[in-house]
Amino acid sequence: MSGLDVPPNEQEPPPVPAPGTLMMDVLRERVGEFRGEWCGQWSLRPVGGGVEWTVDPRDVRPAGPIERLRAELDRANRRSRGELL
What is the pLDDT of residues 12-30, one digit of tens each? Predict the structure, then answer.
């Protein structure tokens, strides 16, 4: 059976990234820092802190250059406003 015959969410999950890796949650259209894996779900946290959320590993991909830049810019802006330490 070729990869073209497999529905998108039934493919093999991607390898577990290193903690802190910026990942794009394609369902929520949010970038988050990878925090860990538990019971087959991945935990992501907003860049710069906040409430973590869980996601199926097949619904995320590594954040692209523009997505990483936006996330880092958001973190810098929040820090300059005193929202982050």
Answer: 777 899 999 999 999 999 9
Q: What angle is formed at CA 30 by the lines to CA 28 and CA 34, rounded to 5 degrees?
A: 110
Q: Distance (Å, rounded) from C-alpha 2 to C-alpha 46?
A: 36
3 state SS of 65: helix
Cα-Cα-Cα-Cα dihedral sign, residues 36, 38, 41, 43: negative
Query: Would you tell me how many other CB atoms lie within 10 Å of the CB of residue 34?
Result: 21
Name the DSSP class of 39.
T
When mean pLDDT is compared across 18-27, 33-42, 46-55, the lowest value belongs to 46-55
Distance separating alpha carbons of residues 2 and 25, to the nearest angstrom: 26
β pairing state of 30-38 and 41-46: antiparallel
